[in-house]
Design goal:
This protein has a domain of about 60 residues. The chain is mostly helical and about 170 residues long. The chain has a two-stranded antiparallel sheet. It is elongated and about 160 Å long. The chain is built from 4 helices and 2 strands, in the order H-E-E-H-H-H.
């Protein structure tokens, strides 16, 4: 066989193999990862601490910690209440002291003015009252049967009725 023919034949077989056989890939070696941490309470191994749930049995530790927190909160609450009470008492004492000082500072003229005002109020209360004004009577001009009634509304109404009767005739 000639060289050229041999070359063509080799190329054809190479192409045929590529089409029929799958390509060879480099196989990666998978590294086996070991857990990074060991749990102190349950002994489990884990990589992600957020995904770890402890497998320890019983909730005694949780209850003990919760009781401790509740006791501390009660102590804080009573201490704060005592501090608030002391503060309120201090403020009350200061206010009482200020009231006493202010009462001592009231001048004589102010006291006289207050006495005069009180006298005026007492006089106004003791003043004899006038008799209440008489209320207007509930005299309706439409229902008035008195032909001698001199009220303007009654007279005008009567005249209007008479004029209406004359206009109808």
């Amino acid at each position: 066989m000639k060289f050229r023919a041999r070359l063509k034949r080799a190329a054809r077989t190479r192409i045929r193999r590529k089409v029929t056989l799958p390509a060879k890939r480099a196989v990666r070696k998978q590294i086996r990862r070991r857990p990074l941490f060991h749990c102190g309470s349950c002994g489990k191994q884990y990589n992600n601490m957020f995904g770890h749930t402890c497998g320890s049995k019983g909730d005694f530790g949780k209850r003990r910690k919760a009781a401790k927190r509740a006791a501390a909160a009660a102590v804080r609450k009573t201490r704060r209440a005592a501090e608030r009470q002391k503060q309120n008492e201090r403020v009350a004492r200061v206010r009482q002291r200020e009231r006493g000082r202010a009462a001592g500072r009231v001048s004589v003229t102010r006291r006289r003015e207050r006495a005069k005002a009180d006298e005026r109020v007492a006089r106004a209360r003791n003043k004899p009252r006038r008799a209440p004004r008489p209320r207007p009577s509930s005299h309706d001009y439409r229902n008035c049967r008195d032909h001698d009634c001199e009220r303007q509304a009654c007279e005008a109404y009567r005249e209007g009725l008479i004029d209406a009767e004359e206009a109808e005739r």
